[in-house]
Amino acid sequence: MHPNWHIGLYVLVQGSSYPVQTVINLIFLLLSAHADMELAHKHGYHNDVPMHDIAIVGGGMVGMALACSLASMPLTKQLNVAIIDSNPALLNENSIKKEDPPDPRVSTVTPATIALFKDVGAWKYVEKHRHAYFDKMQVWDYTGLGYTRYNARDINKEVLGCVVENKVLHRSLLSCIQNAAFQQKIYSCRLSSMTLQPSSSSSPRGSSAKLELSDGNSLYAKLVVGADGSKSRVKELAGISTTGWKYSQNAIICTVEHMEESRCAWQRFLPNGPIALLPIGDRFSNIVWTMNPEESSDRKSMSEVDFLKEVNRALDNGYGPHPKSQLFGGSAAFSWLTIDKSLSANDCFEIPPKVTKLASDRMVFPLSLKHANSYALKRTVLIGDAAHTVHPLAGQGVNMGFGDAFCLAKVIAEGVAVGSDIGEVSLLRRYESERKPANMTMMAILDGFQKAYSVDFGPLNVLRAAAFQGAQYISPLKRTIISYASGEQRFPLFS
Amino acid sequence: MVRKHLITRLRNLTRPASHLHSHCPNFLQTRRHFSDAPPPPASALPPPPPASNVHSKSSLNQTELNKFASIADTWWDAEGPFKPLHVMNPTRLAFIRSTLCRHFRKDPHCTRPFEGLKFVDVGCGGGILSEPLARMGATVTGIDAVEKNIKIAHLHAELDPITSSIDYCCTTAEKLVEEQRKFDAVIALEVIEHVAEPAEFCKSLSALTDSGGAILISTINRSMRAYATAIIMAEYVLHWLPKGTHEWSSFLTPEELVLILQRSSVSVQEMAGFVYNPLTGRWSLSDDIGVNFIAYGTKNNE
Ligand SMILES: Cc1cc2nc3c(=O)[nH]c(=O)nc-3n(C[C@H](O)[C@H](O)[C@H](O)COP(=O)(O)OP(=O)(O)OC[C@H]3O[C@@H](n4cnc5c(N)ncnc54)[C@H](O)[C@@H]3O)c2cc1C
Ligand SMILES: C[S@@+](CC[C@H](N)C(=O)[O-])C[C@H]1O[C@@H](n2cnc3c(N)ncnc32)[C@H](O)[C@@H]1O
Fold first, then answer.
1. Nearest CA in chain B to A22
2. In the CATH hierarchy, which fold is given to the domain comprising B4-16+66-299?
3. pTM: predicted TM-score of the whole model, two decimal places
4. Within a 13 Å sphere around the CA of A433, how many CA atoms are in the beta-carbon half?
5. How far is the CA of A294 from the centre of ligand 1 (A)?
6. Which member of A214, A320, B46, B188 lies 3.0 to 4.6 Å from A142 by CB, making a disulfide possible if both were Cys?
7. What is the pLDDT of residues A143-189, one digit of tens each?
8. Which atom of ligand 2 is nearest to the CA of B69?
């Protein structure tokens, strides 16, 4: 139990030297208003330095999601928000053409993210562009020992997720803000430095952070949101440390074309890492293929024909045979598992569609995992990749970021409702305590997956396969896994 | 007393800053000097001198005031002695927001629902409550009997253009009554247990309330459970404070509060308790008024 607060107040008085100090303080009080003006000159403040409630540093997908969410709520839409990013996509209105082949930078958004986008009114803009829902997912293993298929109807959903190009998500959020009556100002430059506690103790800006921009301008904000990606300048300037590591693995991403349209997301685990084929609409799919660095440089530079051959081998019967359905079903070794066959009876193993054409450049990037040790300090808060970077294995990176953005907007609204200073650390900690456990659980799962599949060792392969078979046949567990991957549940491991 | 008047008068005098500049150049120098130095430590300041000219109806309880004066520097330290007030703040403000939005028929979804309303925060301390009320749009007057609290409150409010409009004044509720001031809402949170005459104090609060206005009072219950949780835990189990520093008998039960408010022509409309969840470290509103509680009342038409 917590003791009542009164206790803290009953400290006995032990003081002395009263008059001098009091007179000085009195003078201090009386003159503060005037002296502030004096100070303003001394410190080079000018009244034309703009003052904002919130400065969002980084107008990527996550920063824009925060702005959008703030614009959508009655309590926050009156806030005066600055968005700082030199990315020209924030300014020019060049439209996205539906005929163009899809960009290789895509995100798999979960039903939870879709619901949040609908809430703020941004999903209708996504629907105007290319987007592809999928309702099935097949995950299997090159050893041929196991596979599992997830189906939306197993969790009573229409879809398991939707694959959308990052530029479409970004543009939709931007359109959504532009069509809301929202006081945002876009500063088309980068943040270069920031002072969280401007020197003067009683300036009218004393409760704001001062931001210096790359074009020499500056501005004040009560709250600075670092949405500036994995190399966050805000994180660096605020002195927030990170924990993380690099995997000695790279991912190749690209867009491909195949024979027939599909509504299934495919992922196969190979000796050096997984390959995923995500339908992005029409007959296009996105490929995310994890491998060791030497392989990635080879496969980036090889001819298109050779690359496609490798892709098809990786998705079909290269490295090992197709798994047979129900290899472990009912076997004595796993008799302790509760088997629910009715759920998965129709889910036979399928071979993914054959890839016929490369439709974009091949991009290579290294995999890493990075987590900020703190998300919130006084006047500073981190969201999205600035707070956590994960490899794209389960396409969770940006979903975690969207989760952050919407949660932070909600916490800010709660603060505004009760007249809090929105830069107050006790308020921002509420955001942290909601998001940190959720993100860390997700990171642990992804890291676990990563570790389990980056080792090619016989007994482990069998265990892995057993885990797959388990996931295939034990419906409650399977439901939990899917609902976690689709952003429905918070703590699958503890519930 | 003289000093308090002096402050008020001087403050009014000094409103146009240039006027001051020409008349008191040496004051300015002192101010500049101190703007570069850290604020003086708490111990450097003893309590204000005993108020010898207190008349019988005064709400002042000097022993209590001395306690507050001694820790005034820590008002805005969220981890300091006033931590419980900081932690409780969002919860009690949520109660105030919801009752007063209903009372004054204001849109609860609006950022500044109290725009155009005059509130007085009696016993404002360092302004922990006054500042959020100002951000919610109210025109706030904050009063406290301890001069040092008012000074801290004023300096802190100056940091933010929105809160710098708060009118802080070192005075008492009964003095404002003498000056015939009226407010739309009169708020005194965690004060009544520190005053000399709770019933008289309530009469003053009532007199400050405009007809059709609202009154909000929060305090700690004189219940066995409040005693157990608050005192035993803090004084004996956690050893936070020297034993025996609580003035137990000065606490009011909810029934007593309702009664004395009634006698001051205030009808209590709603009451809520605050409960602390040690797991989340947060307070929430509840029907349980056994330990800490808040009451919202309306002034009866005379
Ligand atoms: C190649 C690649 C493929 C990926 N594939 C997937 C996937 O399939 N699924 C998935 O869910 N996730 C994927 N991710 C992760 C996903 O892209 C990120 O999680 C997501 O982009 C994070 O968004 P963000 O807004 O937090 O950061 P970013 O998208 O990195 O945006 C940061 C923004 O901040 C701006 N900025 C940076 N520094 C400053 C500064 N000093 N001042 C002002 N502005 C600044 C930048 O211009 C940029 O606009 C992938 C990541 C990469 C790199
Ligand atoms: C526990 S604090 C509460 C502060 C503030 N109302 C809050 O809840 O955050 C009590 C305050 O009441 C002031 N006080 C006590 N007796 C008073 C009186 N008779 N008149 C005015 N203020 C008084 C004290 O100086 C102290 O600042």
1. B45
2. Rossmann fold (3.40.50)
3. 0.80
4. 11
5. 25
6. A320
7. 777 777 778 887 777 888 899 999 999 999 999 999 888 888 999 99
8. 25
